[in-house]
Design goal:
Elements (H helix, E strand, L loop, with lengths): L16 H18 L6 H8 L3 H5 L5 H15 L9 H17 L3 H14 L1 H28 L9 H18 L8 H12 L4
Helix pairs in contact: 1-2, 1-4, 1-6, 4-7, 5-7, 5-8, 5-9, 6-7, 7-8
Length: about 200
């Protein structure tokens, strides 16, 4: 006798990928246009064309939803290439950072989220855990590979080096609101290599 198809229990949370994709796009759009403080679950659900229950099946709160969506997007854009040499690794990493900071949505979201995190310690910790730490872990491997190849001193302060790599471009794009010229990444990489005492 053929086996009957298994029935999904009534009320079970069936997370359909196309709905998740629509919700993620809606979260990014709402963050970019309204900012974190004004973003609501209702607005996201309306923009995504779903009921609020579709959101709550995935995330228990607005903060969890925002941090999860931005974390997935941001960490995906932090896959740093292993080119076999520190300078080309560094230029590739700077290119990835530039792509993240100048993405049409992130360029609007990041300054607002940074300001909101300054007022909200719980959000700040969530952003550090979900976005900051995974991105830094990926960049840390780049520096550790360079140390193993003897391109950087063994006693390199990796945490300080990570700040040094990310800081100038963030300052230029998000604080000064200046553009990065075509040769900016190469010039920045050369300055960073000197600052890191690269061999």
């Amino acid at each position: 006798m053929p086996e009957k198809p298994r029935r999904v229990p009534t009320g079970a949370a069936v997370l359909q990928p196309q709905i998740t994709t629509a919700v993620i796009a809606a979260v990014m759009e709402e963050l970019a246009t309204s900012g974190y403080a004004k973003l609501s679950m209702e607005a996201v659900a309306k923009r995504a064309g779903v009921g609020k229950s579709a959101l709550y099946r995935r995330w228990p709160s607005k903060q969890d939803m925002v941090v999860a969506v931005l974390g997935e997007f941001s960490v995906e854009l932090a896959e740093f290439a292993d080119t076999g040499a520190l300078r080309t690794d560094l230029v590739a990493a700077l290119d990835v950072l530039h792509t993240w900071l100048t993405h049409p949505r992130m360029a609007a979201i990041l300054p607002d989220l940074t300001a909101e995190a300054g007022r909200n310690p719980v959000l700040a910790q969530a952003v550090r855990t979900t976005i900051g730490q995974p991105r830094r872990a990926l960049a840390r491997r780049l520096l550790q590979r360079a140390i193993e190849r003897d391109e950087l001193p063994a006693d390199t302060d990796i945490e300080l080096a990570l700040d040094l790599i990310a800081g100038p471009m963030f300052w230029r794009l998000n604080v000064r609101h200046a553009e990065a010229e075509p040769d900016y990444l190469d010039r920045l990489a050369d300055h960073l290599l000197r600052a890191l005492n690269a061999r």
